[in-house]
Design goal:
This protein is α/β, with parallel strands linked by helices and 178 residues long. Helix content is 47%, strand content 16%. The longest helix has 21 residues. It comes from Sphingomonas lutea.
Length: 178
């Protein structure tokens, strides 16, 4: 009986992982509405560049780089982005209070409230979007209109497996009120 129950849980886990792997976050549609702000989560290639492009294209008025290393400056960002950052550098804020996805959401919430914004575009990698969206919805509730805008990547099996486990464990922790 225990072996059957364990086998059923393992099967549910495996099916969940397959669904997770085949339904990664998607980029926002080209005609997605303009938002007050863009929040980009650091840690993956192409995220910051895409966020600055969104800002430069006028799809938001301000950008928060959540989870930036405290030693990083706007000048560092400008050097990294080169001509991409021209004309938008003054609209970029660096947030260095957060260390993980949950604290990214908390940091972004304080920044959004301080600036009296009502809407945001959340940018992160496609494999990270599901957990990021979950954490942001938990912190922001329905008080903010949110568009998700995933940066496409080619995640490895280990990246997907690790992210799926983090997502499942976080959901269990919230459910268990841990």
């Amino acid at each position: 009986m225990i072996a059957r129950a364990f086998s059923l849980l393992l099967l549910i886990y495996a099916i969940g992982f397959m669904a997770f792997a085949f339904t990664l976050g998607k980029p926002a549609k080209a005609d997605a509405r303009t938002t007050d702000a863009v929040v980009v989560l650091t840690g993956g290639s192409g995220r910051l560049e895409h966020a600055v492009d969104v800002l430069r294209d006028g799809k938001a008025e301000r950008l928060l780089v959540a989870g930036a290393d405290p030693s990083v400056t706007k000048a560092d960002i400008a050097r990294r982005l080169g001509s991409r950052a021209r004309n938008v550098r003054s609209a970029i804020d660096l947030g260095s209070e957060s260390v993980d996805t949950r604290s990214n959401a908390e940091e972004a919430a304080r920044w959004l409230q301080k600036n009296r914004y009502d809407s945001l575009r959340l940018i992160t990698s496609d494999w990270h979007m599901r957990r990021a969206r979950y954490e942001f919805r938990r912190v922001l509730g329905q008080d903010f209109d949110m568009i998700t805008d995933a940066v496409r990547s080619e995640p490895s099996f280990l990246t997907l497996f690790g992210e799926y486990n983090k997502f499942v464990l976080r959901r269990v922790a919230v459910w268990a009120d841990i």
